[in-house]
Design a protein that fits this description.
It is built from 27 helices and no strands. Among the domains are: about 290-375, Serine Threonine Protein Phosphatase 5, Tetratricopeptide repeat; about 390-475. It has helices at about 15-30, 35-50, 50-65, 70-80, 85-100, 105-115, 120-135, 140-150, 155-170, 175-185, 190-200, 205-220, 225-235, 240-255, 255-270, 275-285, 290-305, 310-320, 325-340, 345-355, 360-370, 375-385, 390-405, 410-425, 425-440, 445-450, 455-465. The longest helix has 16 residues, at about 15-30. The N and C termini lie far apart (about 95 Å). It is elongated. Helix 2 runs antiparallel to helix 3 (about 50-65), helix 5 (about 85-100) packs antiparallel against helix 6 and helix 13 packs antiparallel against helix 14.
């Protein structure tokens, strides 16, 4: 048997002595006596190392010397949990409940087992019972409970226990950091920002806290603050590649395209074969309408990642913008083949088919886009512009009427619906939608006039009499 030197740097003298004696016993193949406390130290050592096989061996040896010892049986329950044997652990813990009715660790471990089994209400009940029994070390118990719940994605419950731990001790930086993280996962982004900022007063050189703070800022679209936070990360660790990537991304989101491209290139020095960075550089060029450079970077992306649907979409969008409809068609079809559930892909396919004169195919693509994502008004607006031959006008009205059910406050939909209703002489309904449009975006009146070009005195008076500050909807002030 080969024995490796153990790492004892975190153990005290008594604990180190116990582990050394146990190792020597195994090496020399003799029998030694250890008291219960020494066994606990040895078992904890192997649990910390996650050497569960050795921990189990120590437990069995300990139980031979000290049969029925509750503290050793508790260690056994813990090892069974870590070994993925929750039911065996639970059986043992239920027996221990009778012997150790006032020991909070028994109930905490039962809560851990129930958590792993997905029985959340039972887990919470056991955890709360453990807290009622704990008088010393309550803050540590709260952290352990919260961490257990966090590991199974129960961030709401976990945050409540972290909050209790922090309320017990406002200097508990672990509770503060993890509470911020839970809030971030729960989309309580403003609260998360404030907690990360507070944590950084304890640990101003924590790159992970600055990085997570940047992520929270990004979610609430405070891109400049996110960039500032990421600059701190880079100052702390200039080789932390994720910080460069996220900084570049925030710069692009903040329409700082040239700076974003520069930062992405810095990232590529650390990660030269990153298709996502190359894609985002292409995207930044596309947003600047530098289509030549954009296409070059989309091509580079696809050479590294031929399954990148977004790059094919980017290609298709640019080719469509340049009126190269056939080439755009092949690119968007490849994007859809890779990701048939993206409504933007189907929307673009619909526009490309329309430009190619494939009206039936275009209509199918519009319908698919709407089926996937009915909350984008632009899809409905573009669908209403489709040429439906003889049924054109009434079909437009039906489409716009359905769109209005989803987006009653959208000015362009109301202007278009008003104009098309006016064309079929449905003046009352047209006036209603025109008023709706004027009440929200009067500056877009040309949408109405571009469709209904008749100089109708009824509508002209309605428009002339309209005031942003005061408009009569039939309710007198």
């Amino acid at each position: 048997m080969i024995f490796m030197e153990e790492n004892f740097e975190y153990l005290n003298e008594e604990e180190t002595s116990a582990v050394n004696r146990y190792s020597d016993m195994l090496k020399n193949k003799n029998v030694s006596y250890f008291d219960i406390f020494e066994f606990e130290h040895i078992i904890d050592f192997y649990i910390e190392k996650y050497d569960l096989k050795k921990a189990s061996e120590v437990i069995e040896y300990a139980l031979k010397l000290h049969p029925g010892t509750s503290s050793i049986l508790l260690k056994k329950a813990q090892v069974l949990i870590n070994n993925g044997l929750p039911y065996k652990s639970l059986k043992l813990l239920k027996d221990l409940t009778k012997l150790e009715a006032s020991n909070f660790t028994v109930f905490f471990l039962k809560g851990v087992v129930y958590s792993s089994l997905g029985e959340l209400s039972k887990a919470i009940s056991e955890f709360d019972h453990a807290l009622n029994l704990a008088f010393e070390g309550k803050d540590e118990l709260l952290i352990n409970i919260a961490s257990t719940l966090q590991q199974i994605g129960q961030y709401d419950f976990a945050s409540k226990y972290y909050k209790q731990a922090y309320d017990l001790d406002n200097d508990n930086a672990i509770a503060l950091y993890e509470l911020a993280y839970c809030y971030e996962k729960m989309n309580k982004d403003i609260e998360s920002v404030e907690l990360y900022k507070l944590y950084l007063t304890f640990d101003p050189y924590s790159k992970l806290a600055w990085f997570n703070l940047a992520g929270a800022y990004h979610k609430i679209e405070e891109y400049e603050s996110a960039i500032d936070a990421l600059e701190y990360v880079i100052a702390i660790d200039p080789k932390y590649n994720h910080a460069y990537y996220q900084k570049a991304l925030n710069e692009v989101y903040n329409e700082m395209y040239d700076i974003g491209i520069k930062t992405f290139n810095e990232y590529l020095l650390l990660e030269p074969d990153s298709p996502s960075a190359l894609f985002h550089i292409g995207e930044a060029y596309a947003k600047q309408e530098n289509y030549k450079e954009a296409l070059e970077f989309f091509d580079k992306t696809l050479k590294l990642d031929s399954l990148n649907s977004e790059a094919f979409y980017g290609q298709a969008y640019i080719l469509f913008s340049e009126k190269k409809y056939t080439d755009a068609y092949y690119s968007i079809k490849r994007a859809i083949k890779l990701d048939p559930e993206d409504p933007d892909f189907w929307h673009l396919l619909a526009l490309i088919n329309q430009s190619l004169g494939f009206i039936t195919e275009s209509e199918k693509a519009f319908k698919t886009a709407i089926d996937i994502e009915s909350t984008d008004p632009q899809i409905w607006i573009d669908y209403s512009k489709l040429d439906h031959a003889k049924k054109n006008l009434f079909k437009k009205i039906n489409i716009l009427s359905e769109a209005f059910e989803h987006f009653a406050d959208n000015a362009e939909i109301n202007y278009r619906l008003a104009a098309n209703l006016a064309l079929i002489q449905n003046m009352d309904s047209a006036a209603y939608h025109l008023k709706m449009a004027l009440s929200s975006e009067p500056e877009k009146i040309e949408i109405f006039r571009s469709i209904y070009s008749v100089k109708d005195i009824f509508f002209e008076n309605l428009i002339d009499n309209f005031s942003i500050d005061k408009f009569d909807f039939g309710i007198k002030n």
